[in-house]
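Hi R.,

Here's the input for the protoporphyrin IX containing FE complex you asked about:
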Amino acid sequence: MDIRYSGLSRISHWLSVIFVVVMLTLGYMMFFSTDRGAGAYAEAAHIGVGFFAFWVLLWRTVYRLKMGFPAYKIKSTRHDVARVIHYLILLALVLLIFTGPLYLFTENEGMAVFNWFTINLDLSALSLIHEPVEEVHKITGLYLLPALLIVHIVGAIVTYILGE
Ligand code: HEM
Ligand code: HEM
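And here is the predicted structure with protoporphyrin IX containing FE in place:
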């Protein structure tokens, strides 16, 4: 089994990092903003960038699941934990990219991608799931994903210092 990530895997990892950092920053700006205008501006940017984040993060998740993870040279609890965290990060990202658009569509709001185009998909028949979907999106974006990323990044630093 392969023990190294391919070049494409590395590019997709760092491309996802850029999208996730931008989406998290805008999400937190919405959360903390006390000014209505600034909050609305951040939300519009979050939705616009979110359209592109959707495709990139969906593709990278399908690619990873299809290709599998490279095997570690040695088996250890640290590696097992790292692998579980990788799966959980991917799960959190998939939850976010689906609940974001669903949150809008279930109240028949379009997904406006800047002033370029708007995706309209009337799912108001599913309005019952509007609130739960919003809660899942917020809890995953504000708490779950950041917590997983902290563990992931600390783990990466520890591995860098201690070696595999
Ligand atoms: C938004 C931030 C990040 C996300 C969403 C993320 C996500 C992931 C995911 C899903 C994997 C599993 C392999 C793959 O599918 O690419 C992974 C692996 C990895 N990430 Fe990140 N990552 C982030 C930030 C970082 C940062 C800042 C570092 C460096 C400090 C880092 C270092 C690594 C390393 C070294 C691996 C391979 C680890 C191994 O196989 O044990 N990541 N990351
Ligand atoms: C990596 C992907 C994503 C991350 C990390 C993320 C993060 C967040 C966070 C932290 C919030 C909370 C803001 C608050 O409570 O005020 C939020 C809200 C929101 N997100 Fe995302 N999000 C992502 C993807 C998306 C996508 C693809 C869309 C698609 C349109 C989207 C649409 C929204 C909307 C409409 C809200 C506002 C919810 C409300 O008003 O209660 N998000 N997001």
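One thing worth noting: Residues 9, 13, 16-17, 20-21, 64, 82, 86, 89-90, 149, 152-153, 156 surround protoporphyrin IX containing FE (ligand 1) (CB under 6 Å).

Cheers,
M.
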